[in-house]
Write a structure and sequence with these properties.
Layout (H helix, E strand, L loop, with lengths): L1 H26 L1 H72 L9 H6 L7 E5 L5 E4 L13 H8 L6 E6 L5 E11 L5 E10 L1 H4 L12 E5 L5 E6 L17 E5 L10 E7 L6 E7 H4 L1 H26 L4 H24 L4 E9 L5 E9 L1 H6 L4 H4 L10 H17 L1 E8 L8 E10 L2 E8 L1 H15 L9 H17 L4 E9 L1 H8 L1 H18 L5 E6 L2 E6 L5 H14 L4 E3 L2 E3 L2 E9 L6 H17 L5 E3 L2 H23 L2 E10 L4 E13 L3 E3 L5 H7 L2 H22 L6 E5 L1 H6 L2 H12 L6 E6 L8 H13 L2 E7 L6 H7 L3 E4 L1 H6 L4 H16 L3 E4 L5 H9 L4 E2 L8 E2 L4 H5 L4
Parallel strand pairs: 21-22, 24-26, 26-27, 27-28, 28-29, 29-30, 30-31
Antiparallel strand pairs: 1-2, 1-5, 3-4, 4-5, 6-7, 6-10, 8-9, 9-10, 11-12, 11-15, 13-14, 14-15, 16-18, 16-21, 17-18, 19-20, 23-24, 23-31, 23-32, 24-25
C-alpha cells in the first residue's frame, strides 16, 4: 500500500514547492524588481565601458596608424632624397667632364664602364641640342625620340639650370624607369644639350619597406604636378592612385577609397624628398590596420553579453548569500580568463604597476601587480616570478633612472607615449621599446611594444648610406657629415686636426692587367692595411676609386701626421697576395692641417689633394705637407689651361709664316706655319708658352685642326690672287698623329678649302714615329699617297735610327737649331753636320738647317752642301698678308 501512495506524496511535494516559490516571488516582487533593475543598470554600464574602451582602443589604433604612415613616409623620403642627390651629383659631374673634355667624353668606353660599374642607375647619356644621342653607356631605342620628350623641351626652353625628373612608362601603363636630367650650356648660356640618367623604378620604390607592411600597403613617389610616378602594393600587383593636392610640409590622413583603383581606404602619409620635386608617400590599408581593434570590439560585445547574462542569473539566484558569493566568484574568474586570453593573444606587453611611496609622499618605486606572458618575456622573466617584483630589481644603471623619470612623469600628467632604450637585468644587449602609460588612481597601466627591429632597420639604412659597400669604410657622404663637426670640436678646444689624402700608386695598372674582380680584392686589402697602419682612434674614409682620406684628431701634433704617413707608406711595401696572383702598390700622401691650411672641410680636402698631387708630380711613393707656393703655381697652371680651352673655343690664335730658302738658288722654296696665341690680356704669346700644356691636356688635337684650317684658308686666299705659290709646312704633334686619322683630317681640310696637296707639307717630330708601328706606317703611306711631302722636324733631338728613317721614306730632314749653332763654334760641330747631310742624301732626302742666325752659319752650310736653310737671318716669322709673294720678298 505504501508503494502505491509514494507517487502521490512526491507530486504533492512538488506542487507545494511550486506554490511556495510562487508565493515568495509575489511577496518579494519589489526585491526581485530591484535586483532585476540593478542588474539591468549594471549590465548597461559594463557594456558601455567595454564598448567605449574598444572604441577608444580603435581610435588609438587609427592615430597610431596615421603616425606610422607619416613616420615611414619621412624615412622613405630621406632615402629617396639621398638617392636623387647622388644621381644629381652624377649628372653634374658628367656635365662637367663633358665640358672639360671639349665634348670628347665617351660613355661607351671601358674607362666609363669601369667608372660606373657599381652605379645604381641603368644608363647615362648625353644628348645634343637637337635631341640626337651623342654618347651613352647603353644606346637605347627610346633615346632616339628624346627631342620630343617633355624633359628635353623643358631644358631647351628654360634658361635656368634645373633638375627635371620624368618617367618611362611601359605598354601596360606602369612606370618602369625614372629619368633625371640637367641641361648643358655652351658659352654665353646657349642651350647645348642634355645630360640624362635613367634609374630603374624599383631602385626608388624601396621594396624592403613592403616586407614589414600589412597586406595591401602601398609605397610610392609623386612628382611636382602631384601625379604619382610610382606606386607599389604590398602584394605582387600595382595600384593606381588619384591624388589631391598634398601639403608641402608633409603629413598623414585617412585617404578615402576613391583615391585608389582597388577601392580600399588607407592611412596615407607623405613627406617631401628634400629639395627635390618628389613627394614620398606610404599608404597602410585601413581594414588590415584596424582588424585587431575590430576583433577586440567583437570580443567586448561578447563579454558584455556574457556579463549581462551573469548579472541576470545572479539576480534570479537569491536563495542564499553563500550561493550568490560562489556564483559571483565563478563569474569573476571567467571574466579574468577572458581578459587573460585577450591580452595573451596580443604581440604587445601589458603591465599593471602599483605605486610605492617614500616617507615624503613621493613615488619612489613601482611594483608589478599583473602582466601578460609577452610582457614578462620582454623583461626576460616568467610571469609568475615577475609579479610582485619591484622595478628597481628589474633594471639597472641609467636605464632604471630614465625609466623611473618617465613613469613618474606619467603619474604626474596622467599618461606617457614615447620610445625608450631598455637594458633588462640579465640581457646581453639593450632593446628599443614603444611605451604607453596611463594612470588609474594608484596604478599605472603599461603597454610595451618591441621596436628594436625597425630601429635596427633604420640604422642599417643609415649605415648603408654612410659606408662604402666594397671596403666597409665610411664613404664621402659620411666624411661630409663628420669632418665639419670634427673641425668644430678642434676649433672649440683650440686643437690641431690633420687630413691625409692618399692615392694608391699603380692601382690602375694592376686593375687593367688583372681585371675588376682582382681590383676589388686589392682595394679591400688596401683598406685593411690603411686601417691597421693608422692609430686606433683615427678615421679611414674611402672617397671613391683608389682615393682614401684619414682624419687625425685628439690634440694632434704636426709631427704625428708625418709619423702616420710614414707608417702608411711602410704598410704598402709588402706585395699584395691576391687569389689571381700578386700586386705591388705604393701610396702618394698629401697632408693638410687645421687651422694652418684651411678653416673648413672643403679647404682642407682641396689642400690635401693639392699636396698629394705635388707628390705625384715629383716621383710618387712619398708624403708632403701642403705648400702654398706649389698651390699657387698649380692654380696658375689650371687657370692657363682654362684660358687655353676658352681660346680654342673662341679661336684666339693667329698663324705666322717663316720662309725656307734654297741655298743653290737663294729663292724661297716653302714656308713653315707657326701658331701664335693672341691672348686678350697678355698679348701675342709664343708657342713655347702654351704648346707643351696643349700636349699634356690633349687640346693639341683640336688646336692642330684649327691651325690646319687657318693655313688651308689662307692658301685658298693667296691662290685666288696669285698663280704661283710655294707650299706651307704644318707641324703635327705626336698626340695628334697617333690619336687621330691624320690623313683623313688633311683630306677633309683640303676638300673644304679647295687646296691642292702639293701646297701642303707635314712636319713630324721623331717621337711621333717611335717604333715604326703599323699605325705609323699606314698613316704615312696614306699621306704620301695624297701627294703631301713629309719632313722630319727637329732631327737629332729624338730617337730615330737610320733603319727607321729609311723604312719611313721621308722627303726632307730638318736638322735642329742646336746642331746649326755648333757649326761655327767647333770643328766637331761641322763634322757632325756633314755626317747628317751625307746620311740624308744617301737616303734620298733633302736637308734643311733650322735656326740660321748669322751670315757665317749660312756660308758654312753652303760649303757643307746643305740644301735649304731657315731662321731669323733669312726671315722672321710674319703675319699673313694679302699676297704670299710679299712674305717671300725678303728671301727672294
Amino acid at each position: 500500500m505504501s508503494m502505491r501512495s509514494a507517487p502521490g506524496v512526491v507530486g504533492q511535494g512538488a506542487a507545494k514547492a511550486i506554490r511556495s516559490l510562487a508565493a515568495s516571488v509575489v511577496a518579494n516582487m519589489h526585491i526581485i524588481a530591484a535586483c532585476l533593475l540593478a542588474a539591468l543598470l549594471l549590465s548597461l554600464l559594463s557594456s558601455g565601458v567595454l564598448l567605449g574602451s574598444a572604441a577608444a582602443d580603435r581610435d588609438d589604433g587609427e592615430r597610431a596608424a596615421l603616425d606610422q604612415a607619416r613616420t615611414t613616409a619621412h624615412a622613405y623620403s630621406d632615402q629617396v632624397a639621398r638617392a636623387v642627390n647622388w644621381h644629381d651629383l652624377v649628372l653634374r659631374q658628367s656635365r662637367e667632364s663633358w665640358g672639360l673634355s671639349a665634348h670628347g667624353l665617351n660613355l661607351e668606353s671601358a674607362q666609363s664602364a669601369e667608372m660606373f660599374a657599381d652605379a645604381t642607375f641603368s644608363n647615362l647619356a648625353i644628348l645634343a641640342s637637337d635631341g640626337r644621342l651623342v654618347t651613352a653607356m647603353k644606346r637605347q631605342g627610346e633615346l632616339a625620340l628624346a627631342a620630343q620628350a617633355r624633359f628635353f623641351q623643358i631644358h631647351a626652353g628654360a634658361p635656368a639650370d634645373q633638375l627635371v625628373i620624368s618617367q618611362v612608362i611601359d605598354d601596360g601603363g606602369n612606370v618602369v624607369e625614372l629619368q633625371f636630367s640637367r641641361p648643358i650650356r655652351a658659352a654665353g648660356g646657349r642651350f647645348d644639350g642634355v645630360v640624362l640618367v635613367q634609374v630603374a623604378a624599383q631602385k626608388l620604390t624601396l621594396d624592403f619597406f613592403m616586407q614589414r607592411f600589412a597586406p595591401d600597403g602601398v609605397v610610392g613617389l609623386a612628382g611636382a604636378d602631384n601625379l604619382p610616378l610610382l606606386a607599389v602594393a604590398g602584394r605582387p600587383r600595382r595600384v593606381r592612385l588619384a591624388l589631391p593636392p598634398l601639403a608641402a610640409a608633409g603629413g598623414s590622413v585617412l585617404a578615402p577609397a576613391a583615391w585608389f583603383s582597388d577601392g580600399r581606404a588607407r592611412y596615407f602619409g607623405w613627406h617631401r624628398a628634400g629639395a627635390y620635386p618628389l613627394t614620398a608617400f606610404v599608404a597602410l590599408d585601413q581594414q588590415n590596420m584596424l582588424a585587431p581593434f575590430d576583433a577586440a570590439r567583437a570580443a567586448a560585445v561578447s563579454r558584455a553579453i556574457i556579463a549581462t547574462a551573469a548579472l541576470f542569473a545572479g539576480a534570479l539566484v537569491v536563495m542564499g548569500f553563500l550561493l550568490r558569493l560562489t556564483w559571483r566568484k565563478r563569474e569573476s574568474q571567467r571574466t579574468d580568463e577572458t581578459y587573460r586570453m585577450a591580452t595573451e593573444g596580443s604581440s604587445d606587453g601589458f603591465f599593471i604597476l602599483g605605486m610605492l611611496f617614500n616617507g615624503t609622499g613621493a613615488v619612489d618605486d613601482f611594483e608589478v601587480l599583473d602582466c601578460n606572458k609577452h610582457g614578462a618575456a620582454l623583461c626576460h622573466q616568467r610571469r609568475e616570478t615577475l609579479i610582485g617584483r619591484r622595478f628597481s630589481a628589474l633594471y639597472r644603471d641609467h636605464t632604471l633612472a630614465e625609466l623611473l623619470d618617465v613613469l613618474r612623469g606619467a603619474v604626474d600628467t596622467g599618461s606617457y607615449d614615447g620610445e625608450l632604450e631598455f637594458q633588462p637585468e640579465g640581457a646581453d644587449r639593450s632593446r628599443w621599446m614603444q611605451l604607453k602609460a596611463v594612470r588609474s588612481e594608484q596604478k599605472l597601466a603599461i603597454t610595451l611594444r618591441d621596436i628594436s627591429e625597425s630601429k635596427a632597420h633604420v640604422a642599417a639604412l643609415e649605415h648603408r648610406g654612410n659606408h662604402d659597400a666594397l671596403t666597409g669604410l665610411p664613404n664621402r657622404h659620411w666624411l661630409q657629415w663628420y669632418l665639419p663637426q670634427a673641425i668644430g670640436r678642434a676649433r672649440e678646444h683650440r686643437q690641431t686636426l690633420a687630413l691625409l689624402f692618399i692615392d694608391l700608386d699603380g692601382f690602375k695598372a694592376a686593375n687593367d692587367a688583372m681585371g675588376h674582380a682582382a681590383g676589388d680584392e686589392l682595394l679591400r686589402h688596401a683598406a685593411h692595411r690603411l686601417t691597421e697602419a693608422v692609430r686606433p682612434h683615427d678615421h679611414v674614409i674611402r672617397l671613391g676609386g683608389d682615393e682614401f682620406v684619414v682624419i687625425l684628431e685628439h690634440n694632434l701634433r704636426v709631427e704625428d701626421a708625418a709619423i702616420v704617413a710614414e707608417r702608411v707608406i711602410a704598410a704598402f711595401r709588402p706585395k699584395f697576395k691576391l687569389i689571381g696572383g700578386t700586386a705591388v702598390l705604393g701610396t702618394s700622401i698629401g697632408i693638410s692641417s687645421f687651422p694652418t691650411d684651411g678653416d673648413d672641410a672643403a679647404s682642407l680636402l682641396q689642400n690635401a689633394d693639392v699636396a698629394m698631387y705635388s707628390v705625384k708630380t715629383s716621383g710618387k711613393g712619398s708624403f708632403r705637407f701642403f705648400d702654398q707656393q706649389f698651390y699657387a703655381a698649380l692654380r696658375q697652371q689650371l687657370e692657363l689651361e682654362q684660358e687655353l680651352r676658352r681660346a680654342i673655343e673662341h679661336d684666339e690664335f693667329v698663324v705666322h709664316y717663316q720662309p725656307r730658302m734654297d741655298l743653290a738658288s737663294s729663292r724661297a722654296t716653302s714656308m713653315e706655319a707657326l701658331v701664335r696665341w693672341l691672348h686678350p690680356r697678355r698679348g701675342l704669346l709664343e708657342p713655347a708658352e702654351f704648346i707643351p700644356l696643349a700636349e699634356r691636356t690633349g687640346m693639341i688635337v683640336r688646336l692642330g685642326e684649327l691651325v690646319l684650317g687657318k693655313v688651308c684658308g689662307q692658301l685658298a686666299q693667296w691662290a685666288a690672287r696669285e698663280a704661283s705659290l710655294v707650299p706651307v709646312s704644318v707641324n703635327i704633334s705626336s698626340r695628334q698623329f697617333n690619336e687621330t686619322d691624320i690623313a683623313r683630317v688633311f683630306s677633309g681640310a683640303m676638300a673644304r678649302h679647295g687646296i691642292a696637296a702639293s701646297l701642303l707639307e707635314i712636319e713630324l717630330t721623331e717621337s711621333s714615329m717611335m717604333g715604326g708601328s703599323s699605325h705609323v706606317l699606314e698613316s704615312l703611306s696614306k699621306i704620301r699617297g695624297m701627294g703631301i711631302k713629309l719632313l722630319v722636324d727637329d732631327f737629332g733631338t729624338g730617337y730615330s735610327s737610320l733603319a727607321q728613317l729609311q723604312m719611313l721614306d721621308f722627303d726632307m730632314l730638318k736638322v735642329d737649331k742646336a746642331f746649326t749653332s755648333r757649326i761655327e763654334q767647333t770643328e766637331q760641330g761641322k763634322i757632325l753636320f756633314t755626317a747628317i747631310i751625307t746620311m740624308a742624301h744617301a737616303l734620298g732626302m733633302r736637308v734643311v738647317a733650322e735656326g740660321v742666325e748669322t751670315g757665317k752659319q749660312l756660308s758654312i752650310l753652303r760649303a757643307l752642301r746643305c740644301d735649304e736653310v731657315q731662321g731669323y737671318f733669312i726671315s722672321l716669322p710674319q703675319a699673313a698678308t694679302e699676297a704670299q709673294s710679299v712674305l717671300l720678298s725678303p728671301v727672294a
